Amino acid sequence: MRLKLVAVAVAALAPVVAMLAYNEVALRHQRNEEVRASAAQAARQASSEVERIVEGLHGLLVSVAAMPSVRHLDVGTCNEALKSVAESIPNVSTIFVVGLDGRPVCGSTAFPEGVRFSDRDYFQQILNSKDFTVGTYTQSRLSDRHVLPLAMPLMEGDTLKAVIVSGIRMDWLQNRITERGVAPGNAVTIADGKGTIVARAPLPEQFVGTVIPDEYQHLIHAEQPDVIELTSQDGTTRIVAYRPIALPSSPLFVSAGFSKPEAFAPIERATLMNTLAIIGGALFSLTAAIFIGNRFILVPIWRIADVMEKWRGGQTSARTGMTGSDELEVVGATFDRLLDELEERRRRNEEVEEERILLVRELAHRVKNGFTLVQAIARQTFSRSDPERYNSFAERLAALAGTYDLILSREGSASPVRDVVSAALRAHVASEAEHIRLDGPDVVLPADTALPLSLVIHELATNATKYGSLGSENGTVAIEWRHDDGRVFLLWTESGGPPVSKPTKRGFGSVLIERAFPAKAQARSHSDYRPEGLVFELVFSIGVS
Question: Transmembrane segments in this chain: where (predicted)?
Answer without folding.
Answer: 276-302
